Amino acid sequence: xxxxxxxxxxxxxxxxxxxxxxxxxxxxxxxxxxxxxxxxxxxxxxxxxxxxxxxxxxxxxxxxxxxxxxxxxxxxxxxxxxxxxxxxxxxxxxxxxxxxxxxxxxxxxxxxxxxxxxxxxxxxxxx
Length: 127
Description:
By secondary structure, the chain is of the alpha+beta class. Helix content is 41%, strand content 20%. The chain is built from 5 helices and 5 strands, in the order H-H-H-E-E-E-E-H-E-H. The chain has helices at residues 6-16, 24-34, 40-52, 95-105, 121-126, and strands at 56-61, 64-70, 76-80, 86-89, 115-118. A 3-stranded mixed sheet has the order 4-3-5, with no helix packed on it. A two-stranded antiparallel sheet has the order 1-2. Helix 1 (6-16) packs across helix 2 (24-34), helix 1 (6-16) packs across helix 3 and helix 2 packs across helix 3 (40-52). The mean pLDDT is 90.
């Protein structure tokens, strides 16, 4: 990684300590409370660097702001199509599923991480 940066450490710690998969703006607002001089550009630049280096996972959220996750173990995500909340879950992809994916997509190599979309309990109650 590039040389040490206090701001980069603050960004990664903010994500690491937030299990709610914060957006870049939420990270910026949280850090600004502790360090009023931090700029939005600094947060965004550091987020991009951390994603590029594989220390942070960016979760694209179809039409909603991207969310960020500290990459500490392999896991998958379930995203609510209404509110955009992201939930972690673990699942073992067995050989039957791998073979089905390979046959239907012709992918030769893929990770055991994936994203599913649905409607969370809170949003379901509002419908």
